[in-house]
Amino acid sequence: MDFLQVILTLDMTIRLSVVLLLACLAGLFSERSGVVDIGLEGKMLIAAFASAAVAYESGHVWIGVLAGCGAALLFSAIHGIASIIYRGDQIISGVALNFLASGLTIVIGDAIYNKGGQTPVLTGSARFEDITLPFADAVADVRLLGPIYSELISGHKSIVYYAFMIVPVVWWVLYRTRFGLRLRAVGENPASVDTAGISVYMMRFKALAITGILCGLAGAYLSTAQAAGFGREMTAGRGYIALAALIFANWRPIHAMGACLLFGFLEAISNLYPNIDVFGLFTIPVQFTQALPYILTVVILAGFIGKAIPPKAVGQPYEKEH
Amino acid sequence: MKLIKTLLGAAAIVAAASTAFAEGHGANPAIIFDLGGKFDKSFNEAAFTGAQRWAEETGGEFREIELSSEAQREQALRRFAEQGANPIVMTGFAFSSALETVAPDFPDTKFVIVDGYVDAPNVRVVAFSEHEGSYLVGVAAAMASESDVVGFVGGMDIPLIRKFACGYVQGVKSVNPDATVIQNMTGTTPAAWNDPVKGGELTRAQIAQGADVVYAAAGGTGVGVLQTAADEGIFSVGVDSNQNYLHPGSVLTSMLKRVDNAVYEAFTEGTMLSTGVVVMDTSTGGIDYAVDEYNADVFTDEIAAAVEAAKAGIIDGSIVVHNYESDNSCPVE
């Protein structure tokens, strides 16, 4: 494997990680506030559809992104009403939303465009364009650093750069602001937050709203940046991998970025080198590489390496004492 | 009492209506599309086009279903057969095992399977010589390539798709023995037929390795391949349906697999259709390549002459394209 191939693999890693990263940060807010969100997949799917359809109709990608965030927010609100106000089972509500998104996108898409659930192909300003950073072409021939800058760092869609910029912001919000402190507290011990005179419901709804917006960005990235239009079931399980990354990262933002990059890297490897030959002794089948994110998560959960410590109150609906 | 009367009346109407429905639609043909969906702009869409053409020309009606999961395969087949649809056409090799169990249960129903293989007295197997068509577009790709590196993106990793790949490589090497062909398969499950995002990623990777023509034999996944090729300003080659119109000037040509003709013929022959293996190849027009106003600018006379010569060679037997499925191996890489 030569240098160019390494750059190529890492370049693909970045493109594939972004959607995981956004979804993972979305899940982080929700779960840190004590609401399990297995519905990341469904929120991304409905957002991907809404942003592709609206971007196509309006011709502007950012209007599409807004619509995607709106759709995911709506789904977040349903999840919140079911699991926070009515104290329903959070897993069931999330799974229900996944099914709802899977069916709705196809039915609505087929009704509007009559293309079996696909949206028409997006062109021009209806989708994200690659951004070439300054001097990228000028330094492309410089040894080692040239390709790193011009291939790996430059030439992505704008949303890719935003996604990575969001990570330190999330860290700052979570650990350095009053809101972050309350958010973490509400996921650990909601009763104490309630005693302090802060509404547990309100905190959880705020967290779910942020989850919705981030899921919206993730979905919009899929359909308007990575692809040029919506296709049915286009999230293809990425919401679940993001959830696995969240556990792998122990519900911490910077670690989440690392986990998403690792999982993206594994996906890139499985794309580029389906069957890896190990010194001619045996081959690692592509299925193994694809399953590795889940295997790693199970290993972490089982406590063999490190230990997954979820927020204490996660999954439990909060009931105010009377 | 009145309520019961109303209900009974309604039930009677429904019963009458459903009998009428069953009689009116009894001998209609039916078609089952595989997981890629009938709007995959490729294989399934070709089948749909053929069915549409039959409906428009004869004024007949046909029944259809798009599968959304593996589990529906046998169920859909059985239901159409029970409802009296005849003949029943299904698109895709994956129907083979389901049809094998269903066909003997309905000896009076004729089944047509495209790409699969089932040995039963009431089944017609339509087999295409995809290796010949892939050879032709391989010739075109090698002529159009300036970097001497071309790419291939397959759908699910199955012998049929390797047959496409092998024919393509042979075509490329016949023009330029030193050319490099980068091959990637999208996946190992039927989901690989409908993953345009991954198709696009694989294409980007091939472009970064120098490929300037990419051939997609991947159903709905191919949409992503063609899109990325157009974005990056390189050539692509479409498959099954004529995909030249998708990105004029970027799609060099399309390998045509006339699934539409196969479906059209099956529907036209109706219940009287003959069974057994029907081979559709270059000499019978079942396999071809597409030239139209959308690729006229890029499909130069030079390329056209080379491809036409290869086609003539295949028809008169002077060029023999190795069929991967005959021995599950490919003589060239």
List the helices and strands and how they pair.
The complex is a heterodimer of chains A (322) and B (333).
Chain A: H1 3-32, H2 40-58, H3 61-85, H4 90-113, E1 130-131, H5 145-153, E2 156-157, H6 158-176, H7 178-188, H8 190-195, H9 200-226, H10 238-248, H11 253-272, E3 276-278, E4 282-284, H12 286-302
Chain B: H1 2-24, E1 30-33, H2 43-58, E2 63-66, H3 72-82, E3 88-91, H4 96-102, E4 111-114, E5 123-128, H5 130-144, E6 149-156, H6 159-175, E7 180-187, H7 196-208, E8 213-217, H8 221-232, E9 235-240, E10 251-257, H9 259-269, E11 276-280, E12 287-289, H10 301-316, H11 324-327
Parallel strand pairs in B: 1-2, 1-3, 3-4, 4-5, 5-11, 6-7, 6-8, 8-9, 9-10
Antiparallel strand pairs in B: 10-12
Helix pairs in contact in B: 2-9, 3-4, 5-6, 5-10, 7-8
Helicity of chain A, as a percent range: 55-70%
The Rg value of chain B, from CA coordinates, equals 22 Å
Oligomer class = heterodimer
Biggest β-sheet description of chain B: 6 strands, parallel
Q: Order of strands across the biggest sheet of chain B?
A: 2-1-3-4-5-11
CATH homology group of the domain at 130-255 and 287-327 in chain B? Response regulator
Low confidence ranges of chain A: none
CATH architecture of the domain at 130-255 and 287-327 in chain B: 3-Layer(aba) Sandwich
Per DSSP, what share of the residues of chain A sits in E-state strands of 2 or more residues? under 5%
Strand content of chain B: 15-25%
Number of helices of chain B: 11
In whole angstroms, the N-to-C terminal distance of chain B is 79 Å
Described by strand count, sense and barrel closure, the largest sheet of chain A is: 2 strands, antiparallel
Mean pLDDT of chain B: 88
Label the structural class of chain A.
mainly alpha
How large, in whole angstroms, is the Cα Rg of chain A? 20 Å
The H-and-E topology of chain B, N to C, reads as: HEHEHEHEEHEHEHEHEEHEEHH
Shape of chain B: globular
Please trace the helix and strand order of chain A, writing H or E for each element: HHHHEHEHHHHHHEEH
Q: Calculate the terminal CA-CA distance of chain A, rounded to whole Å.
A: 66 Å
